[in-house]
Amino acid sequence: MNITITILTMLFCLMFLQENTVAQSSVVTVNLRFVPVQTIAVQAAQKTTHLIYAAPEDYENGVSVIHDNHLTIFSSGGFQVTVAADNPYFRRVGGRETIPVEDLVIKAASGLNSGSQAQFKEATLSVTPASIIESEKGGRNLNFNISYDNSLAGSAQKYIDKYIKDDEKETVYTTNVTYTILTR
């Protein structure tokens, strides 16, 4: 009888241990985390833009230049693109003369691949960033055309006498324009 009790006790303990080892588990939480990823680039061949006053009509009507697919954007979600000048004036290279940057209007439009969600605004250039593209959706390799329009401010002979003879071939007024992409 002692042997029977001992065997039954051992079987009971073995079953109890087996139940406890089989029923163990552990939980892992897996998160997909998305952070805003955005890039903006100006086409390398279009890093310098020239608005050239080379004919009487240019002084009468002003000048405008359109760069197709000028900006390329990647955005993991909705975005906004702003434009701003680095100072309030175009400055004459080698001189002190200036022209206000407000004489230039920046316009954005759909490029080769811009998505259907983008909305466009035109902005008078300023040192204060102004929105020109807004989209509720992101995208990859989005292209946008940009127009540098000086036709209103540069018309009606306003720029006569901006050529300085000492500059010989041409007189150049310059400023830097920065495009910035922001999350929406």
Topology at a glance:
Layout: H1 2-22, E1 38-42, H2 56-61, E2 64-75, E3 79-85, E4 89-92, E5 98-100, E6 105-110, E7 119-120, E8 122-124, E9 130-135, E10 139-149, E11 173-174, E12 177-183
Antiparallel strand pairs: 1-2, 2-10, 3-9, 3-12, 4-5, 4-11, 6-8, 6-10, 7-9
Written description of the protein model:
- With 184 residues, the chain is mainly beta.
- It has one domain.
- It is built from 2 helices and 12 strands, in the order αβαβββββββββββ.
- It has helices at residues 2-22, 56-61; strands spanning 38-42, 64-75, 79-85, 89-92, 98-100, 105-110, 119-120, 122-124, 130-135, 139-149, 173-174, 177-183.
- β4 and β5 form a beta hairpin.
Helix residue percentage? 10-25%
Identify the overall geometry.
rod-shaped
Rounded to the nearest angstrom, the distance between the terminal CA atoms is 81 Å
The share of residues in extended strands comes to 35-45%
What spatial order of strands do you see in the largest sheet?
1-2-10-6-8
- What integer is the average pLDDT? 91
Radius of gyration: 33 Å
Structural class: mainly beta
Q: Quaternary arrangement of the chains shown? A: single chain
Q: Counting H and I runs of at least 4 residues, what is the number of helices?
A: 2
Q: How many individual domains?
A: 1
Number of strands: 12
Topology order in helix (H) and strand (E) letters? HEHEEEEEEEEEEE
Q: Describe the main β-sheet briefly.
A: 5 strands, antiparallel
